[in-house]
Amino acid sequence: MQRFEKRAVIVTGAGSGIGAATVRRLFSEGADVVAVDVTQEGVDKILGEFGGDPRVTGAVLDVCDRAAALALAAETRARLGYLNGLVNCAGITGVANVIDVEPAKLDKVMAVNLNGTVNMCQAFVRAVQQDEGPRAIVNISSGAGVMGVPNRLPYVASKFAISGITKSMSPELGPLGIRVNAIAPGMTRTPLVEYMLQDPEAVARIKAAHPIGRMGEPEEIAAVIVFLLTDDASFMTGAVVSVDGGQTACL
Questions:
Q1: Any idea which residues carry the catalytic annotation?
Q2: What letter would DSSP give residue 96?
């Protein structure tokens, strides 16, 4: 299917994991994709998969840099003549409990996961608010954005915030014709969790936590992200969609 022909999407955190899988899926469906990562290495890695195809361009960007985010969205809209989607995959994890969490760690996780998402959403909306036609944002929350997880206070705080701002933005952006939804993935095989897969006990816990009996693959998460960007989801906004193998359904 070529559901994204003559449509452009910015994907942050595109160098690996869910972000990279989303870039691949969008490209396969005809999109122009701007693959954003915080490192040149990450950008080069994902661009290298497409053999220089002009439909995939890259940008090194720290999502915490609001001015850079505003400039990227405006430049993309001006260069292509259209900009239809934003996927906020950039994020970091944070392990700490309420007794021991250091303010610097909490601030860093919130800066990337929450403030970075807000920066990119603001940049996208400012660039396309006068346009017509399909425009949509997909934010990445987490199972940790709909349920408590011990010893992950900074991460949980940031992901609950993502779920909240998604719902808050939907009535603001709906009148502009811009939809905004979030997904809440369960445990997914990405570089952030690879260290856990070396521990057989951790693998057993992961399997037991998901009724489907396994963790997710980035391509499975990307499929739902892309659906939320399409016209097939034209009546969806303000939703936080669990893509988690049934993990949160069991609580």
A1: 155
A2: B
